[in-house]
Each structure stands twice: as C-alpha cells, then as structure tokens.
UniProtKB/TrEMBL annotation:
Start and end residues of each Pyrroline-5-carboxylate reductase catalytic N-terminal domain: 11-100
Pathway(s) annotated for this protein in UniProt: Amino-acid biosynthesis; L-proline biosynthesis; L-proline from L-glutamate 5-semialdehyde: step 1/1
Gene3D superfamilies documented for this protein: NAD(P)-binding Rossmann-like Domain (3.40.50.720), ProC C-terminal domain-like (1.10.3730.10)
UniProt-listed InterPro entries: 6-PGluconate_DH-like_C_sf, NAD(P)-bd_dom_sf, P5C_Rdtase_cat_N, P5CR_dimer, Pyrroline-COOH_reductase
NADP in keyword set: yes
Listed name of the protein: Pyrroline-5-carboxylate reductase
GO cellular component: cytoplasm
Keywords, sorted A to Z: Amino-acid biosynthesis, Cytoplasm, NADP, Oxidoreductase, Proline biosynthesis
Gene Ontology terms: biological process: L-proline biosynthetic process
Source species: Muricoccus roseus
Enzyme class: oxidoreductase
One example GO MF annotation: pyrroline-5-carboxylate reductase activity
Reaction it catalyzes: L-proline + NAD(+) = (S)-1-pyrroline-5-carboxylate + NADH + 2 H(+); L-proline + NADP(+) = (S)-1-pyrroline-5-carboxylate + NADPH + 2 H(+)
C-alpha cells in the first residue's frame, strides 16, 4: 500500500468498470468510499470494505466526498444525475468515465459542476490500467490534481486538451482489453479445433497473451519489431500472418472496428 491515502470518494455505479476502479483504489488505500449501486451482487466483492447504498437518498448525510465518480452506463445518466446536483453545489469534483457523455452535457445536467471526463480500462483493477482524461473549464488545478491522484492509483494517466480525442481513446484503450480477450478466446478455440486438449489450449492461449503483453510492456522495441522477431523466414508464423494480414483481414478490420466504436462513442453523447 502506498503512503498516500486517497480522499473520500462517492462512486456512482459499481459494475465492471466502477468495480475495477474501486478495487484499484482499495489496493492503494482509500480514506472513505460510499458506493451507490442498486444491483447488490456487483458490490459483494467489496462488502465490509466500503459503504454501499442502493440509491442517492441513502447516502449518509454527513458524508462530504471530494470527488464523485460517475460510472453508470451512459444511458442511465439522464435519470441519475440530477440527484447529484447538491454535491456539485457543495464543490465536489465530478469524474465521469461514461462513454460518450460530454463535459458540457454533464455540466448542464448537474447545473454547473467541475467535470473531468476520463476513459479508463479494466486492467485498472490490478493497477495496470490506462486512462486518458480531459478537464472541463470549471476544474481548478487542485481538482485536476485530485483527479490525477485517483486515476493514477489504477495505472497510467495521460491528459488531453481536446475532448474530441476521448472518442477514439474509448475505442482503443477503453475497449481494447475486449479485443485482446477475444484473441485469447479465439486462440483457445483454434487450439481445440487442432486437437489440443482443452485445458492445455486454454493455458497456452492465456500464457501467450500475458507473456506477449509483458514483453511488449518491458521492451523498447516497436510492436512491429517484436512481431518480426517471432516470424522466422519461410517458417510457420509467416503462413499465419499471411492470412491475418491479407485484405480485408486484421489491418483493415482493426481500423474498421476502432472506427465503429469511435462513432458509437460520439452517438452516445446525444
Ligand atoms: N466496462 C469497461 O471496460 C469500461 C466502461 N466504461 C464506462 O463505465 C460505465 C460503466 O460501465 P460498466 O461498468 O461496463 O457497466 P455496468 O453495467 O457493469 O455498471 C453500471 C452499474 O451502475 C448501476 N446503476 C444503474 N443505475 C444506477 C444509479 N442510478 N445509481 C448508481 N448505480 C446505478 C448498474 O446497475 P444495473 O445493472 O442494475 O442497471 C450497474 O451495476 C459506462 O458508462 C461505460 O461507458 C469506461 C471504460 C471502460
Ligand atoms: O463498451 C463500452 O461502451 C465501454 C466503453 C469502453 C469500454 N467499455
């Protein structure tokens, strides 16, 4: 645990991503957290470590969070957010991780609030997240520092000035873990199709992804060089990559996939 204990936080929505952030914060050391989450099973992993309430009206009256983290689904925001206006009036910083929801929209829903829009990813749960954040015009430098401390407790953080960049960020680092996990699923399935025993296929696929990720993380080489290091001339990988890199395979499909997710992030703003 770090020497720095994080300040009181109100987490609104403790599903997959809110839960991942909370796990990261608890690992780091959190002074007090109140979690608003109507779906009780989502918070069972945190029982006895944080105070969980089912709705905004059940938040303990003396609780004064320095930051309110909005982690409901974007489609739930319109109904949920007006109830949080008193916290905005009280000067709390709002950190939204909701895909698509713009700072101006959140500011309007909260009738004036200091809003940081951030896009984390689920490796935050083990302190290996990657977050890109953008601060709204009402955010003071002290509040930006607070947002940074909360987000950096779960991994790396980058700040951007242009909020429009959060849409492609959502498509790449926000959703990226899903693409990697899909690859793990597909490698496991392909192994089984080739007659590899299921347990071995599963371990092989997982270890290949985690080992490659760790190598990429530690290496100064470009990903392309690490790929070429695996690809022996006239060997086996060359055959597989010829399939994966043929048009319209990975090079086109990954760009199309990221484009589709970026467009959806922009649509969610509405
Ligand atoms: N999953 C990810 O990898 C990432 C998600 N995000 C963003 O994080 C947000 C949450 O996503 P995710 O965790 O996947 O979604 P989940 O559905 O897993 O989590 C949202 C949680 O909020 C609860 N909830 C619904 N209404 C309220 C309310 N009024 N007050 C408090 N809690 C409420 C939901 O309960 P119920 O299920 O009963 O509705 C649910 O448990 C989204 O906006 C998403 O865009 C950002 C980055 C990555
Ligand atoms: O799928 C989603 O909309 C969210 C945002 C990024 C990852 N999950």
């Amino acid at each position: 645990m770090s020497a720095e204990v994080l300040p009181p936080v109100l987490l609104v929505g403790c599903g997959k991503m809110g839960g991942a952030l909370l796990a990261g914060w608890l690992e780091r050391g959190l002074s007090r957290a109140v979690v608003v989450e109507p779906h009780k099973p989502s918070t069972e992993a945190f029982a006895h470590r944080v105070e969980v309430v089912p709705d905004v009206h059940s938040i303990p009256s003396g609780f004064v969070p320095e930051a309110v983290v909005l982690a409901t689904k974007p489609q739930q925001a319109d109904d949920a957010l007006p109830d949080y206006r008193p916290f905005a009036r009280g000067g709390a910083l709002f950190v939204s991780i909701m895909a698509g929801k713009t700072i101006s929209r959140l500011d309007a829903m909260l009738e004036g609030a200091a809003v940081v829009r951030a896009m984390p990813n689920t490796p935050a749960a083990i302190g290996q997240g990657f977050t890109v954040a953008c601060a709204g015009r009402r955010v003071s430098s002290t509040q930006k520092d607070l947002a940074h401390r909360l987000l950096v407790a779960t991994g790396e953080v980058d700040w951007v000035e242009a909020e429009s960049l959060i849409d492609p960020v959502t498509a790449i680092s926000g959703g990226g873990p899903a693409y990697v996990f899909l690859l793990a699923e597909l490698l496991e399935k392909a192994g089984i199709e080739q007659g590899v025993p299921p347990d071995l296929a599963r371990r092989m696929a997982r270890a290949t992804i985690t080992g490659s990720g760790a190598l990429l993380g530690r290496s100064a080489e470009d990903a392309a060089v690490l790929r070429k290091n695996v690809t022996s001339p006239k060997g086996t990988t060359e055959q597989a990559l010829a399939v994966l890199m043929a048009e319209p395979a990975w090079p086109e499909l990954v760009s199309r996939a990221v484009d589709a997710a970026t467009k959806r992030s922009r649509e969610l703003a509405k």
